[in-house]
Amino acid sequence: MKFFTQIVVLFILGSLHSWAAEDKETAIDWASAEDIKSHIILTLEPQKGEVASGPNLAHSDKILSEQFSEIYLVRSTHLDDGEKYILYITALYADDGWRDYTSATAGGDDVPLALLSKTAPSCNDKTTCKYEERLAVSLSFFDVIDAMSAGLNVILTGNQTSHIKIPGSYCTAIMQTIMIE
């Protein structure tokens, strides 16, 4: 009987350990501006001033998460530069070609696109290569305000075209972080 008790206790402890070791991704209701706002990180930075960084939008949609590992909308407010809205994108691919994004549109208008970094492909075999592009898309205050109701469709164009749909609730949550003085 003692041996049986030890086996049951070890099984329970092993189960608890594996449950505790699991990655627990926080569930966000992407249709709720209040829920998204509770996941926004606010910081004060010497060069950028007040910075509001939204949660990773790539987790909001299965198709987005297959094409992008990170998508963050960041609002920064600095006395000298005013408010800036930047969409930071990390595109991580496991195939055989660069996207080489060269332009971006938001709400039908051309917006500035900057390539922040490009990681050389690492190939395990000839069919599977992984590479990464980090991009920044500069959005205007009006792009974000207009997107509060219907959302914002950002289109990245290069060797391939990719669509990123930012929900209106995400833009609303970012705008709700503005301090009223």
- The beta-strand count equals 10
Sheet with most strands: 6 strands, antiparallel
Helices and strands, in order, run as HHEEHEEEEEEHEEH
Work out the helicity level: 25-40%
Rg calculated over all Cα atoms: 21 Å
Strand order of the largest sheet: 1-2-3-4-8-7
The overall number of domains is: 1
What is the rounded distance between the termini? 70 Å
Shape: globular
Number of helices: 5
Report the mean per-residue pLDDT as an integer.
81
User: Any low-confidence stretches, pLDDT <50, length ≥5?
Assistant: 13-24
Strand content: 35-45%
* Classification by helices and strands: alpha+beta
Summarize it.
This protein is of the alpha+beta class. The protein has helices spanning 2-21, 33-37, 62-67, 141-150, 168-175; strands spanning 41-45, 49-53, 70-78, 82-94, 103-106, 109-111, 113-123, 129-139, 152-157, 161-166.
Give an account of the 3D structure:
- The chain has 181 residues and is α+β, with helices and mostly antiparallel strands.
- It is built from 5 helices and 10 strands; from the N terminus they run ααββαββββββαββα.
- Strand 5 and strand 6 (109-111) form a beta hairpin.
- Helix 4 (141-150) crosses helix 5.
- The chain is globular.
- It starts with a helix and ends in a 6-residue tail after the last helix.
